[in-house]
Amino acid sequence: xxxxxxxxxxxxxxxxxxxxxxxxxxxxxxxxxxxxxxxxxxxxxxxxxxxxxxxxxxxxxxxxxxxxxxxxxxxxxxxxxxxxxxxxxxxxxxxxxxxxxxxxxxxxxxxxxxxxxxxxxxxxxxxxxxxxxxxxxxxxxxxxxxxxxxxxxxxxxxxxxxxxxxxxxxxxxxxxxxxxxxxxxxxxxxxxxxxxxxxxxxxxxxxxxxxxxxxxxxxxxxxxxxxxxxxxxxxxxxxxxxxxxxxxxxxxxxxxxxxxxxxxxxxxxxxxxxxxxxxxxxxxxxxxxxxxxxxxxxxxxxxxxxxxxxxxxxxxxxxxxxxxxxxxxxxxxxxxxxxxxxxxxxxxxxxxxxxxxxxxxxxxxxxxxxxxxxxxxxxxxxxxxxxxxxxxxxxxxxxxxxxxxxxxxxxxxxxxxxxxxxxxxxxx
Length: 428
Known about the structure:
The chain is an alpha/beta fold. Helices cover about 45% and strands about 15% of the residues. The longest helix has 21 residues, at about 405-425. About 50% of the residues are buried. Pfam families: SBP_bac_1 (PF01547). InterPro entries: Bact_solute-bd_prot1, SBP.
């Protein structure tokens, strides 16, 4: 029987893996006859997991009923199931910075701290700390990172070379370069970024952090501190003085489109957007794009580095050991390697340090992302339950600044509203 089992495993789709590792889920097919349900959002990480799932089922004997949804459908489905106290799904994908605090407050998430330290082969310390910060609340680990994002600087290499400019390393240099390269008459604007009230907040975050500010300090709103105002003022000035017309209406799709068409010299946004910029059918500058660290402010270079998607276990699951076996496999070095080779930026340091793990990314992009992960801040938006409401409050400061209103007055007013929101959530 042992010889037969070995032959089956050896003939699996992943014969090149060391399935004899006693720490792997393959050891002994421990979950034969059991099943779990998994909900996933549409993403590159989910695609990798689905493609390799038959191998996991063969190794463990566990049957996985994996269902995929759009982001909106996933949120709605989870809300219904978890509110009802259903034991299904056992495992689900979560957007930590949007949903973690609500799900944790409602008791829907199984803490994973005891699981991640059981098996030395899992090597939990291999995950970048800032990515883990995104999936931790109240000192409890509530999900494991599947994919990450960092704020980076995109720039036109050709325009910088023609002007004899060095790549900006500070926010002062960024603004000076935007001023120098701003040439609307030729159809090129100095800078582009998100300008929609809600959408801009995540990209505003790195400007605040790099000046020493943040949205809040524990339970105190902090968007009217001198550091925060300095960061917001810079963002407003860049958009207002060197941005394209209609910046008020720009989310990431519109801002990325402007840059991809070659109509902006500088662009700050999430690292994951690079494929849209390079591979866009409308891109006129695919071979002219440069990548750089988010520039340093008075507090240094402090870009966000967040977990965009995490994998969580339901507290109501009746099959927690089986659920953890799936999570352990789906977030293992091997799976992260496969996922990253398909263009999904993972959170494991070892994979980023492996030439195979970075083979799918532009060479200049790799050190920018890895350094951003090393120094990054683990959140890119207010850390509250009602994230959307908080983003509207904070984004309005930028809108007021773009309209020529007093930024300090707008920040003071918004800080009162944001504090009220924080206090209301604490009292519930």
